[in-house]
Amino acid sequence: MESLVLDIVTPNGHHYKQPTGLFINNEFVAAASGQTITSIDPATDKPIATVHAAGAEDVDRAVHAAKVALGHASWKKLSPTDRGQMMAKLAQLIDQNKELFASIDAWDNGKPYHVALNEDLPEAITTIQYYSGWADKTFGQTISTTPDKFAYTLRQPIGVIAQIIPWNYPLSMAAWKLGPALACGNTIVLKPAEQTPLSILVLATLIKTAGFPPGVINILNGTGKDAGAALVAHPLVDKVAFTGSTATAKHIMKTAADTLKNITLETGGKSPLLVFPDADLEQAVKWAHFGIMSNQGQICTATSRVFVHRAVMDEFLARFRETVTTTSIVGDQWDENTFQGPQVTRAQYERVLQYVDIGKREGATLFMGGEKAVVADPKNRSGYFVQPTVFTDVTDEMRIAREEVFGPVVVVLPFEEEDEAVRRANDSTYGLGAAVFTRDIQRGHRVAAEIEAGMVWINSSQDCDPRVPFGGVKQSGIGRELGQAGLEAYSQVKAVHVNMGTKL
Ligand code: NAP
Ligand code: MG
């Protein structure tokens, strides 16, 4: 593959230059591996662009660049104030190009353009802005010990960070990773998901414009099995920060153990949403719908198990059907009316439909959906569209109630008692999000405390804010991202003992 830049026009008319190389030391370079990745438009099943894909040799080169940058005065001696300003500048540059970024992510991932523009982009921009403010506010402590002695602590970067991100929110997942790592003074090699390789390369061009020294942020497209695995195994990588499936996270943890790398893992979920009989049902239905059907159901915190008190089950289901029918409009990325675009890849599309079959074979009732969705426009006939799908008569043991589908598929389960609802909600290997709908404030807080999850929403679902810690318990992850907690993941504390006296 020769060219390192392509002239592209997006389906909504943005003419832009798409870099295709690996971004190392602030330059786009060809992959030594000779490997490529072709990005596909999931609405049409047609290729968008082919980019370079890193192999082990490329990974080694990028890691060395990050290692050199870590010790280079241009980064190491940069004042935290200047570092913060560089980050703020990057956020501003993304903001100035937000329509282009939203167009690329919508095209590449399948999410509606208006969602990319109004949800993903603000999230990416505010996350980098938020952490730009932390850059000059992360201090150590002074600790008094004896009359002659004291100690102080320095909060220092961890070093070279490998960041491996998924495809469901390409740009905002990158921002979640880059923001806190840069605020703490680390250097980075980031591997995007092979399904969504494009927007991050445009971001790379802005990294240079914002003034980051060469080697501070390196971006390598590539597959998990080649580029991802080589990064995790590389001896000069000090930490791996990963978002993706629990299966991959286990693999990464094992490999990282060889050189005792620090890790942060944000993985899957089967998050419960509990509707008590005193809930505002209109709100419960609205959020239950949003909690599973938004982003094509491709959200790690999707509230995919809805437990509804038996007294309100019939009304809940009737209203849920109505909301899905009127709100979950399936279509391509460019139609303003689209709520649900295609699934990201053919593999994910097939996986979702397989789970529908599994549910049917397990004896659950297909309450609605369950088929390929046929959209009107003939150019989208081969797109990966799935109907929003609801199962009832589900038991806790069924695979559709236990495994992460990662699509617009929800199971609705009845319950009778609060204790029972909490016990069944907690009967999962996962523990990422959870939602509770009730008008009883005591119950709301009591259940929030009892649920095994990293995040709980009371009378809501999917709220996420750069100021608020995000992460899972049990097999949903290790460590926290976002908020002040996110800084812990990217800094380490050094203790310095000072002796001002002469006594032993
Ligand atoms: P995945 O395989 O876990 O991918 C996540 C990231 O890890 C990608 O960048 C991937 O590279 C990389 N990767 C894969 N194998 C690796 C390895 N051995 N070493 C290092 N990195 C590796 O997830 P997926 O295949 O895209 O999706 C499968 C399932 O994961 C979904 O159905 C869903 O259940 C879950 N998922 C969860 C989230 C989340 O936000 N928690 C996001 C996406 C998916 P490639 O780009 O080459 O795959
Ligand atoms: Mg794609």
TrEMBL record:
Protein name from the UniProt record:
Aldehyde dehydrogenase domain-containing protein
- Residue ranges occupied by any Aldehyde dehydrogenase domain in the UniProt entry: 29-496
What GO terms are given for molecular function?
aldehyde dehydrogenase (NAD+) activity
**GO biological process annotations for this chain's record?**
carboxylic acid biosynthetic process; polyamine catabolic process
Similarity-based family: Belongs to the aldehyde dehydrogenase family.
Q: Does the keyword Thylakoid apply?
A: no
**Key word Nucleotide-binding present in the record?**
no
**InterPro entries given for it?**
Ald_DH/histidinol_DH, Ald_DH_C, Ald_DH_CS_GLU, Ald_DH_N, Aldehyde_DH_dom
**Cleaved signal peptide residues:** none
Query: Looking at the record's lineage, which domain of life comes first?
Result: Eukaryota
